[in-house]
Design goal:
single chain; 139 residues; alpha+beta; 6-stranded mixed beta sheet
Length: 139
C-alpha cells in the first residue's frame, strides 16, 4: 500500500534538508520554532537534549570552518497530520562518514507555515536483525 504524503509537508522537508545541509543560517531561523527540542541518542544510551541555539551553534561553526555541505539524502517514511501539528519519520544520512539515522520531525504550523518544533535522531537499525517490539505471543 502506497500512502500519498501531503505535498506541502514534503516540500517543507525538502527545503529543510537543503537549507540545513548548506548551512544557510538566516533561512534556517525561519524553519524552526523558538522552543525547539533536539533529542539525540548518545553512545552511552542516554538522550541528549539540545536547544535551538545549541543546534544552530554547531551548524554555524561548521559553516564558519568551511565544512563542505552535508548530503540532502533522505527518504520520507511516514507523515501523520493532526490539525496544525504533524509528525514525519525519515531515513536520513548526512554524508559518507555519517551513520544513517532515523529522524522523527515534530512539526507545527505557525502563521500558516510549517516549522520544526522538535527532532529526535536515533541510529538506523540493521533491518536484518529487527524483531517485533512485542515478544511473540505464548498463547
Amino acid at each position: 500500500m502506497h500512502l500519498q504524503h501531503n505535498p506541502e509537508i514534503v516540500a517543507f522537508i525538502d527545503r529543510l534538508a537543503e537549507t540545513g545541509s548548506n548551512y544557510r543560517m538566516e533561512e534556517m531561523e525561519s524553519l524552526y520554532t523558538e522552543d525547539l527540542g533536539f533529542l539525540v541518542l548518545t553512545p552511552e544510551g542516554a538522550i541528549a537534549r539540545f536547544s535551538k541555539d545549541e543546534m544552530f551553534a554547531e551548524f554555524r561553526s561548521r559553516r564558519d570552518a568551511g565544512e563542505k555541505p552535508l548530503s540532502t539524502a533522505k527518504k520520507v517514511l511516514h507523515i501523520e497530520e493532526h490539525g496544525d501539528e504533524a509528525t514525519a519519520v525519515l531515513y536520513r544520512q548526512m554524508g559518507d562518514r555519517a551513520s544513517p539515522a532515523f529522524y522523527e520531525l515534530r512539526l507545527r504550523r505557525v502563521g500558516g507555515e510549517w516549522r520544526v518544533a522538535g527532532e529526535t535522531v536515533l541510529p538506523w537499525p540493521d533491518l536484518a536483525t529487527v524483531k517485533s517490539f512485542l515478544p511473540p505471543r505464548e498463547k
